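Annual report, structural modelling task.

Input specification for the iron/sulfur cluster complex:
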Amino acid sequence: MKWDISRVNVWGAEEFPHGAVIPEAGNSVYYKVSGWRSQRPCRDEEACTQCLLCWAYCPDSSVVVKNGEVVGFDYDHCKGCGICAVECPVNRKFGRSAIEMVSGGSDLPEPGLGDANGTPAGAAAAISEVG
Ligand code: SF4
Ligand code: SF4
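The model returned the following structure:
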């Protein structure tokens, strides 16, 4: 639809066309981003100290925590920004990689990094609870 804005300089508030409408709070949960993500985080369970900073920093609430521990990532909503890997203190201070960004969306398995989503064994059920 193309708006006729020829008189925009004299529009009153009631004349502005409605833009996007968000009819339901929290509806971004229905929007899955795995189709356009170019990278995704993979966590090394042994290197991880369970400090939970990745969970605190993730802007998309995509670090899945179960019983007070990080168990994986919600790859339906993780957009691969890499903030979790940058903020992980193990990565920054100890030269190990508790979180490593690897290429690919959710459909690309990484050998040796858990299931097809890079999720540690046992975390899939927890992730499905948030999906
Ligand atoms: S890559 Fe970004 S969106 Fe995905 S889990 Fe890490 S901080 Fe969250
Ligand atoms: S920030 Fe790093 S060490 Fe802390 S819980 Fe996340 S992956 Fe583990």
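Residues 43, 48-54, 70, 88, 90, 98-99 surround iron/sulfur cluster (ligand 2) (CB under 6 Å).
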